[in-house]
């Protein structure tokens, strides 16, 4: 049971999605047709111009030929442009009067009545119909007269929409349609269409729907016939609350009207109404504008009145939506501005934190480097210390043994000779050379880094076999972390004043400021 409910729901959803997709596709087709309308109108006007070229010599033609030409021009204009259609209906009436043929005169008056009814001029239509004597007229004229009279009462009922008068108008219209249906050729479009229209006005919507659906299956319908049938059929679906089906039919009718250059049409107006009710304001607005242009171009008064009832509603809704969109845009702008300010503030905070982090990272790297450097220096100079002390103790032990031997045999002169063999200056130089080797092993680029702080003529020039000189050793000790001048003086066996003199002289020659010199020395990296 549950599965059947789910499947049923899915089928309904699929149906509505398909119907919605068809409507959207149809609306897109209609919008393209509206854009192409000038092309269809141009073809219409070209056909009219070809007929009008025959008017130059029409005065010399027989009256019957004149009547036929005016009729052709009337048919071109009858749903295209009211003023022109009215003009040629008057010429038909005048020519029929000159021919003095009752049938042609009735036919001309029918065309004038059709023209007046299409323009919404109900009183004038009634007067024109009242002046037509159909007794003795051919069946084709009688059928057209009764159908037009029926349409007149139907349109009057739709226009009035009065609960008292409208039913009576529809009843009168049905009586005229009954007369017309008995005269139309069997199987003709007119017979089928007006039969369906009568069933619709009588309230037999199912019969009317069946008639119109069967009619639409015919392959020989003209564009105008398709438009009239689909537009009328849409009324049934509107009454049955099947809006999507009605919209699809009205789209088809509107496209057919555009392709046939029919300006006297209610299809696109009805479509705009339905779309407005479905809250599709964009398309409703576009189509009501097209309906306005059609009504103004043709000159249909009742269409202009109908359009005026819904146009303000659509335009008002557009204005409301624009205002709502404006308010929404303002809200979004405020939110976006606040978010932007928040992002800027967060960016500033994060940037500041990143700078602090980078500074901390640089400090940490520098600290790690210094620790690593200190460890290297310690390792190197601990080894250097033990190596030097080992050699020193080796020499001291040898010296002790020699003295003990000499003292045991009381060889005093030999003792003095042994003591005199000790060369303290040489020992000191060897000690410094050992320091130089150990230092340059740790700081192989020290001399180049040191000389980079001076002009070419002031740079240190070492002698052959000289690793470091006094200038370099002073700042080598500083680079090792010994900044106390007194300690440096003791290591190098100079006075404090001498060391200060060396330092001042060296700094004065440098291309960097004196107070920055030792900082630059400390920047020279180990290996």
Task: Explain how this protein is built.
The chain has 527 residues and is mainly alpha-helical. The protein has a domain at 423-522. It is built from 21 helices and no strands. It has helices spanning 2-52, 63-77, 82-99, 102-118, 122-130, 139-160, 165-181, 189-202, 205-216, 223-239, 243-259, 267-277, 281-298, 301-408, 412-420, 424-442, 446-451, 470-479, 485-492, 496-509, 514-522. Helix 7 (165-181) runs antiparallel to helix 8 (189-202) and helix 13 (281-298) runs antiparallel to helix 14. The longest helix is centred in the last third of the chain and has 108 residues, at 301-408. Residues 1-19 have low confidence and may be disordered.
Features:
disordered N terminus, mainly alpha, 527 residues
Secondary-structure blueprint:
Elements (H helix, E strand, L loop, with lengths): L1 H51 L10 H15 L4 H18 L2 H17 L3 H9 L8 H22 L4 H17 L7 H14 L2 H12 L6 H17 L3 H17 L7 H11 L3 H18 L2 H108 L3 H9 L3 H19 L3 H6 L18 H10 L5 H8 L3 H14 L4 H9 L5
Helix pairs in contact: 1-2, 1-11, 2-3, 3-4, 4-5, 4-6, 5-6, 6-7, 7-8, 8-9, 8-10, 9-10, 10-11, 11-12, 12-13, 13-14, 14-15, 14-16, 19-20
In short:
With 527 residues, this protein is mainly α. Helices cover 80% and strands 0% of the residues.
What is the string of helix and strand elements?
A: HHHHHHHHHHHHHHHHHHHHH
Biggest sheet statistics: none
Our measurement of the CA-to-CA distance between the termini, rounded to an integer number of angstroms, reads 84 Å
Number of helices: 21
Determine the strand fraction and express it as a percent band.
under 5%
Relative helix content: over 70%
Q: How many individual β-strands?
A: 0
């Amino acid at each position: 049971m549950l599965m059947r409910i789910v499947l049923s729901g899915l089928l309904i959803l699929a149906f509505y999605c398909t119907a919605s997709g068809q409507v959207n596709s149809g609306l897109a087709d209609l919008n393209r047709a509206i854009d192409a309308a000038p092309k269809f109108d141009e073809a219409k006007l070209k056909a009219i111009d070809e007929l009008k070229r025959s008017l130059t010599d029409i005065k010399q033609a027989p009256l019957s030929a004149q009547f036929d030409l005016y009729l052709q021009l009337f048919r071109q204009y009858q749903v295209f442009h009211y003023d022109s259609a009215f003009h040629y209906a008057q010429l038909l009436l005048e020519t029929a009067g000159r021919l003095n043929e009752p049938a042609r005169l009735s036919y001309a008056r029918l065309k004038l009545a059709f023209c007046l009814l299409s323009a919404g001029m109900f009183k004038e239509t009634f007067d024109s119909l009242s002046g037509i004597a159909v007794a003795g007229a051919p069946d084709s004229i009688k059928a057209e007269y009764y159908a037009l009279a029926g349409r007149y009462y139907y349109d009057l009922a739709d226009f009035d929409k009065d609960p008292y008068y409208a039913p009576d108008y529809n009843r009168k219209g049905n009586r005229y349609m009954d007369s017309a249906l008995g005269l139309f050729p069997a199987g003709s479009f007119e017979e089928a269409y007006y039969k369906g229209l009568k069933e619709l006005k009588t309230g037999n919507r199912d019969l009317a729907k069946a008639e119109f659906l069967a009619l639409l299956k015919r392959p020989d319908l003209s564009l105008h016939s398709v438009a009239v049938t689909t537009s009328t059929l849409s009324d049934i679906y509107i009454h049955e609350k099947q809006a999507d089906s009605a919209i699809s039919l009205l789209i088809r009718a509107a496209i057919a009207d555009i392709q046939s250059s029919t300006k006297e049409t209610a299809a696109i107006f009805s479509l705009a109404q339905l779309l407005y009710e479905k809250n599709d304001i964009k398309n409703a607005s576009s189509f009501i504008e097209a309906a306005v242009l059609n009504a103004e171009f043709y000159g249909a008064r009742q269409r202009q009145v109908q359009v005026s009832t819904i146009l303000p509603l659509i335009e008002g809704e557009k204005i409301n939506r624009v205002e709502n969109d404006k308010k929404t845009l303002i809200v979004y702008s405020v939110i976006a501005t606040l978010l932007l300010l928040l992002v800027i503030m967060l960016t500033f905070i994060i940037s500041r934190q990143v700078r602090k982090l980078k500074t901390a990272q640089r400090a940490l790297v520098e600290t790690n480097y210094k620790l690593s450097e200190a460890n290297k220096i310690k390792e190197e100079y601990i080894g250097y210390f033990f190596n030097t002390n080992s050699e020193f103790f080796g020499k001291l032990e040898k010296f002790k043994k020699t003295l003990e031997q000499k003292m045991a045999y009381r060889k005093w002169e030999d003792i003095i000779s042994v003591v005199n063999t000790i060369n303290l200056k040489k020992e000191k130089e060897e000690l410094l050379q050992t320091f130089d080797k150990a230092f340059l092993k740790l700081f192989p680029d020290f001399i180049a880094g040191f000389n980079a702080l001076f002009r070419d003529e002031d740079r240190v020039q070492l002698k052959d076999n000289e690793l470091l000189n006094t200038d370099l050793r002073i700042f080598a000790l500083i680079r090792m972390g010994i900044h106390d001048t007194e300690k440096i003086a003791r290591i190098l066996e100079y006075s404090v004043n001498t060391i200060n003199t060396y330092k001042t002289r060296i700094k004065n020659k440098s291309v960097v400021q004196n107070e920055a010199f030792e900082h630059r020395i400390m920047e020279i990296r180990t290996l």
